[in-house]
Amino acid sequence: MAEPPLTRVTLLARIRDGRDADAWREFVQVYGPVVYRFARNRGLQDADAADLMQDVLRSVHGAIGRLDYDRKQGSFLGWIFTITRNKVFNHL
Hints:
Blueprint: H1 9-15, H2 21-41, H3 46-63, H4 76-91
Helix pairs in contact: 1-2, 2-3, 3-4
């Protein structure tokens, strides 16, 4: 099993600027496969997992400007998994 990505606060700061296409490409490269694997491990078929991954990334894009990330309050990956889990639940 692949190691979960380390949260880079610098990348999170960069994606807050929706115009930073390089940051979003990197974000999708890092977190897209994690979300996809999570969905597949919950029983979603390939196309459904890919669609769900896109939906999660859209949700992150819409919410990242309001996110006040503080490691003491919880992990960023935990936040991503919460979004993903809720979308998987709604899908099923």
